[in-house]
Every structure is written in structure tokens, then in C-alpha cells.
Amino acid sequence: MNREIVLDTETTGLSPTTGDRLVEIGCVELVNHLPTGRTYHQYINPQRDMPEEAFRVHGLSADFLSDKPLFAEVANEFLSFIGDGTLVIHNAPFDMGFLNAELERVKRPKLTNTVIDTVMLARQVHPGARVSLDALCKHYGIDNARRTLHGALLDSEILAEVYLELKGGRQVGFALVAENRVSAAEAVANIAVAAQRPAALASRLSEAEKAAHQALVKALGADAVWNQYLS
Prior knowledge:
This protein has helices at residues 52-58, 62-65, 71-82, 92-105, 118-125, 133-140, 152-166, 169-180, 184-193, 207-220, 226-230, and strands at 3-11, 22-31, 34-43, 86-89, 115-117. By secondary structure, the chain is α/β, with parallel strands linked by helices. It has 2 domains: 3-169, Nucleotidyltransferase, domain 5 (2-Layer Sandwich); 183-230, no CATH class. β4, α4 (92-105) and β5 (115-117) form a beta-alpha-beta unit. α6 crosses α7.
């Protein structure tokens, strides 16, 4: 199983070494390049003021964050969610720097997860092109109209779509469709000559496996092809 965590953070500024702190974490889980529907989202009290420049980026005020938990109070839950999954992050050194600084403050080890930096990946896939998240959304036709301000969970959800495109997800899907496309007449002919078993084979799936598959299909949405088979 290939488990990846698409992750984004919001902060009070640009550098954890000058007193800036983490204020929001958002994560989206992918398994075998498919979203499972599991997410992690948490606002964090930075115990300091919010610079105007940072507020203009994400809209999170010191007053709003004042009653949110400290990082020390959510560290276990966050670490449990990401586990040993591969972290997928846009401009990874920035987010990893803040996450590791917060972990160091609470006497926890730095993260050792494998990290995929989608900025670097995008530069490999599209050399010479702009690789901001907004630019990549425009390139791939991904709707980011909700992104009036930066938000860790929303940006993670958008980045998950971008990442899958960078990995060739949509193109791979199109290729499979084209490879398997047949005319209506061919389909009827194939059905007519197909040998039919006298009785269906007994399922080898456990109830737990069936339930897990149904949950995954549900997370893919109403348009998922699997819905045709489950119905």
C-alpha cells in the first residue's frame, strides 16, 4: 500500500528561526494515488501576535487563534495521522522547517518521513514554467475559485489534485479509456459470444474487505465508475 499525506501549513511569517510560529495544519490522505476521504485539520495558538503581512495571506487573527490548542496539545494526534506516510508538500523546506521547529520546542524528534516537494516535481514536469499552486491549477484546469485566502486544508485538497496531475493521473486515465474503448456493435458481439458460467464463483472477499472497498468507492464520489458495479 502506497500511503501519501498531502500537507500544507499556515504561519505567522517566513522563518521559524526568528520567532515565527505555526498556526494551521491541513492534511489529505492518499492511498495508491487515490483520496481516501480522511483528512486532518487543526488551528494552533502561536502564543504571539499576528503580523499584518501574514494576516493578509491567510486571514487568521491572533484573536481568532487565542482559544485554539497549543502545538504541544495536538502533536500526538498530528503525528498519528501522518504516521510513516510519504509527505507531499508544495515548497517542502518551508513547511518542514516550521513543523520540525515546533516538534523541537516540545522535545519531540524531527520528522523522518520521505518528502516529495511538488515545486521540484513541477519544475521537472514543466521546465521553465511558473510552478505556483495557482499557476498549476490554471495549467491543469483545476477549479481554485474558493482560494480567496490561503487555508491549510483547502490548499492541501487543491494540491492533492495538482499532485495527481503531475504524476500523470488524468492522462493515465484517458489512456486506459482509449485503450479499452469499443463500439456498441463490438460490445454486443462480445456479449453474444462470451461463455457464461453455469453458476457465479463464490466471493473470496471477507466482510471487512468488502466494507473497506465500499468506503473507498464512497470517498471517490457519485461519479466513480465503481458505483456501476456496486449497484
